[in-house]
Design brief:
The chain has 4 helices and 11 strands; from the N terminus they run H-E-E-E-E-E-E-E-H-E-E-E-H-H-E. It is of the alpha+beta class. Strands 7-4-9-8-11 form a 5-stranded mixed beta sheet, with helices on both faces. The chain has a 3-stranded antiparallel beta sheet with strand order 1-2-3, with no helix packed on it. A hairpin with an 8-residue loop joins strand 8 and strand 9.
Length: 220
């Protein structure tokens, strides 16, 4: 194959395509304590389709790394899976109008009593696009120090266990399937890939979040 023919077949950059279908009906069929179930009818390929999905606030998470490249993990009870699993500090975007990075800073302080001087966008992902609009944004936080005050914690958070773990140990635990929290797994692997590229994949912490339902251009 000649060089010119190779160039002719070079595909476009791999990327998801955002779509804005015509929504003809939308209603909440279950209004839960944390999130709801929504039923929508929309037109796709000129055909009406009905779908129900979890209408989620979205969330932010923080991969906090110290100067020795240790990652701060927390162990917390999660009732749906009946397990105390290792996670990253994280929380819902349940404060109206709050900037996501401000929400991440709040969660880092509230869950592990830390503040950070440097914030970068590590990765974005959607947890279960077949049945939920939940979007997650993960930040890399560095330049860590103690928060000015400790926060009281309740319910499942009351007995959070904190542990500093070496970067490589976290990656090994993910690959060995000993830890299975999706946010932790995706964030750790993304960070490992970014580290191998000299952190060149990191983005500004205030990069527009166009994949979150509340921040898509169509929502403004």
């Amino acid at each position: 194959m000649s060089e010119s023919s190779t160039e002719a077949h070079t595909p476009e950059s791999l990327a998801d395509e955002l779509v804005e279908p015509t929504i003809t009906d939308s209603s909440v069929v279950y209004d839960g304590m944390v999130w709801s179930v929504r039923k929508e009818q929309f037109s796709y390929d000129d055909k009406p389709i009905n779908r129900e999905f979890v209408d989620h606030t979205g969330a932010v998470a923080v991969l906090a790394m110290d100067d020795d490249e240790r990652i701060l993990l927390i162990k917390q009870y999660r009732h749906p899976i009946r397990a105390r699993e290792w996670e990253l500090p994280a929380g819902l975007l349940d404060v109206t109008g709050e900037d996501p990075v401000v929400g991440a800073q709040r969660e880092l302080a509230e869950e592990v009593d830390l503040v950070a001087s440097r914030w970068d966008l590590l990765t974005d992902f959607q947890t279960s696009p077949g049945g939920s609009n939940e979007a997650i944004r993960v930040y890399l936080a560095r330049g860590l120090s103690d928060a000015p005050e400790a926060f009281a914690r309740y319910d499942e958070e009351a007995n959070i266990e904190k542990r500093w773990v070496s970067f490589d140990e976290v990656i090994e635990a993910v690959l060995a399937r000993r830890v299975q929290n999706s946010i932790l797994a995706i964030a750790a692997l993304a960070a490992d890939a970014s580290r191998s590229r000299g952190w060149s994949t990191l983005a500004d912490a205030r990069t527009p979040w166009t994949r979150h339902p509340l921040f898509r251009p169509s929502a403004t």
